[in-house]
Amino acid sequence: MIIDFRLRPPVGGFLNTLMYSAGERRDGFTRTVGFEPSAAAQRQSMDLLLDEMDAAGVDRGVVVGRLAGVLGSVSNEDVRGIVAGRPERFIGAASIDPADRRKACQTISRAVEEGFRLINIEPGSYPVPMYADDRRLYPIYGHCEDIGVPVIMMVGGTAGPDLSYSDPIRTDRVLADFPGLNVVVAHGGWPWVNEILHLGFRRPNLWLSPDMYFSRMPGWEAYVKAADGFLSDRMLYASSFPFCPVQGYKEWFEQLPIREENLKKVMGGNARRLLGI
After folding, report:
1. Average pLDDT over residues 244-252
2. Which of 26, 206, 254, 265 has the fewest Cβ atoms within 10 angstroms?
3. Domain of 103?
4. 3-state helix/strand/coil string of 202-263
5. In CATH, what number is assigned to the domain containing residue 24?
């Protein structure tokens, strides 16, 4: 089973986010990292996405909801509908509003009861940006740790108003303060590649998903070495569709110098273990 750990389908609230409403900007990034844009993304077609997943042999995708400012938001209701429509293909990650910690914790508990497998936290992208180690987030991290649900934390790429919002030192503090919380670092902590790999070596509760920044961006070779080395049990494969095409990314990824036994773990085995599938 191949699991794409960050996949945003062209349907529902996703169509109102910047990744679909600003198609020229998105396609420019796609070409920058060496791919041609997906027809499913350009034509905003769910049927074409499913065809592309089939052609690539990608069995399931993690659909990530979000509460964000300029990037656009996708409600848990939208994610729930996508997963309910194709439960054999999609896995849901719920979002929260950190402004009200009690409500956020209630949302998390309800989401887990409804079948969501992860909680997405994007500190720097909230309408009022936060850093990863903002103390307002700590009760939320603690609740996720207590009930055993993993967190996806976006602290790489365009993770906030400026580069400080992806500061790996702040991520390290969260990992240290909540050692029982499994944290998936989305966008691979890029551009802090060596620093985030050091955290992966230092903190056994860090899981790394470089997704679109895995592909030919500065430092990407270090991700590859880690995937075939010390981080082979905690590296997660993700296309970050629609920024990278599902099929083109998968075909490229399979050609990387990663041994077959590690490639199987990165492209599905690790995700199944993390999510209890």
Report:
1. 97
2. 254
3. 3-275
4. HCCCEEEECHHHHCCCCCHHHHHHHHCCCCCCCECCCCCECCCCHHHHHHHHCCCCCCHHHH
5. 3.20.20.140
